[in-house]
Amino acid sequence: VQTCALPIFEKETYYKTTAEVKGILRNQKFLPCKGSLLLYFKKNKSSQPPSFGDIIKTDKKLQLITSSANPGSFDHQQYQAFHKTYFQINLNPKEYEIISHNRANQFKSWV
Fold this sequence. Notes:
- The protein has 111 residues and is mainly beta.
- The protein has 2 helices and 8 strands.
């Protein structure tokens, strides 16, 4: 269970945001935990991505953020690790569910 913690950025083929992890659902039990991860939502004409502050649920497995294979280029993995973000999830529209809308910190949305 994650909350979209930052505004969603639109790219050509996907939307991207950072999410705050609130917990894991395992065997119908909610296990609280903390952390952040990158979420990528594939664009689809028939669906809208979650909004800032929405709480979403997905069964998709976490993927490690990888670094570029080009020596000397920007190291996205190292940059995200500096911000304590080590995982990402790439989601198609049918791979997540919005379980609550706009539970955002109003100050963060104003900034």
